[in-house]
From TrEMBL:
Catalysed conversion reaction: tRNA(Asx) + L-aspartate + ATP = L-aspartyl-tRNA(Asx) + AMP + diphosphate
UniProt-recorded name of the protein: Aspartate--tRNA(Asp/Asn) ligase
Organism this protein belongs to: Stagnihabitans tardus
Coiled coil: none
Function comment: Aspartyl-tRNA synthetase with relaxed tRNA specificity since it is able to aspartylate not only its cognate tRNA(Asp) but also tRNA(Asn). Reaction proceeds in two steps: L-aspartate is first activated by ATP to form Asp-AMP and then transferred to the acceptor end of tRNA(Asp/Asn).
Keywords, alphabetical: Aminoacyl-tRNA synthetase, ATP-binding, Cytoplasm, Ligase, Nucleotide-binding, Protein biosynthesis
Leading EC class: ligase
Listed EC numbers: 6.1.1.23
CDD domains recorded: EcAspRS_like_N
Subcellular compartments: Cytoplasm
Pfam families: GAD, tRNA-synt_2, tRNA_anti-codon
GO cellular component terms listed in the entry, alphabetical order: cytoplasm
Amino acid sequence: MHAYRSHTCAALNTAHVGQTVRLSGWVHRVRDHGGVLFIDLRDHYGITQVLADSDSPAFAEIEKVRSEWVVQIDGRVKARDAALVNPKLPTGEIEVYATGLKVLGEAQELPLPVFGDVEYPEETRLTYRFLDLRREKLHKNMMLRSNVVRHLRNAMWDQGFNEFQTPIITASSPEGARDFLVPSRLHPGKFYALPQAPQQFKQLIMVAGFDRYFQIAPCFRDEDPRADRSPTDFYQLDVEMSFVEQEDVFAAVQPVIQGLFEKFRPDCKTATDWPRIRYNDALLWYGSDKPDLRNPIKMQVVSEHFRGSGFAVFAKLLEQEGTEIRAIPAPKGGSRKFCDRMNAFAQKEGLPGMGYIFWREAEDGSGMEAAGPLAKNIGPERTEAIRQQLGLGMGDAAFFLGGKPEAFQAVAGRARNEIGRELGLSETDTFRFAWIVDFPMYEKTDEGKIDFSHNPFSMPQGGLEALNGDPLQVYAYQYDLACNGYELISGGIRNHKPEIMYKAFELAGYPNSEVDKRFGGMVKAFKYGAPPHGGCAMGIDRAVMLLADEMNIREVIMFPMNQRAEDLLMGAPSEPLNEQLRELRLRVIPKD
């Protein structure tokens, strides 16, 4: 017999009854039923029930074991009585009568339980992550992640893509986040960078003549953490294609992503229609460039109905340049109680409140009337025009926010989501996707400077000619894929012409010399015949988070950092040794 096991803890069934077997695993839990001891023995594959009575030669040893000890058990397979069958377990029809037990590894008192789904502080969970990962839910999440990666890899090969690896140690590149720098021992005073993405390398692969590339790529960004983003590193499905337009990329990617969600969440509906929504329209209709389309509500501009009206707050606001009033329709939200609840929501978001109108049966029985403070101020003619524009009726409501869109649209988007949830309008058990297209190439910084709003390597729509006008009116062949309120994919058709690249960076404040210095390899390559090319990247961690129905990305990462970008298990970041600093010719400046 094998030194440790003849079967795994998920392998035994009634066909093995009467056989002598050897199992090894962790003691999931021990139960004492008055002279009969039961152990739920767990390994990577599943759980097998082991029992021993006072006649068993293993009884005395089994009495000593505790939860999470690693043990080896010899025994005989028995069929369970029909009344004791556990249909939830693959091994639920049998149990193993123990004849021998060997302790392979004892466990101290546990800092957190493995059995059950008890919530523990994140600090404890991350400090003892190896124990946390033994819990059924996290073990399941990690296996889901592993299977997702395998599925993606196979799907990309089936689509005619080839897998290539790109460097981990490279040069710094401005891609929207801070770099992690790595000091060079051989070149004192100089630094490598961990790649924020394989962006330049995958473009160079296209220039080198390889037509379809993909990689399960690690990426490193020194970012502030949030629930759907790791603060240090993450993995993405990285894709690039030659001789393609935007629609070619969409056509190649959709079956891969759609197949992924259909395979791993068959209990949910995966929408097959993926609409194209312009970036500006997404902000107008949904208050976000990653809209949740499970919610059918679309916001609309209703400024004209308030201009010169009796509602002085909005009327005066509209006298200022660049301001507007937007309405959030709320079908079936036509009660003062609901309107007050949403007003309180707006106040929690930092706003004074939200104006509202709701339509109800007139008290005199004459039909429908508009109610609420706004309705009284602007009169029946304007409220009726608003109702008709929004397509609302009896029992419905609308909420209103005003000002410069960039100041309020994010809150409006959150209010839209809240209204959809509260009124039961949003779908559940559904994945809805949308391509967000026509991103602005540039934006104004808080200091009033022009900078790239997204990926600096995207091709401007209209090419070089478009860059000769107002930069803020230039759109890029840049696109994102939104899914249920999350950005799942980001990509673009690349700028492959040196003269357009120089001009694009010049508008963002980078002289040609700086472009040559930072992107010399890519600029040089483009001067030797670069094909039109484009691609995208999907965040694997975020995709698994959606598939696992988790709200926090740390639940699907094997060894995540905490919210302060610390590895509590391994003790990173740590202070370097003086010898290391001397070898690298570095000195740490004490914090003030």
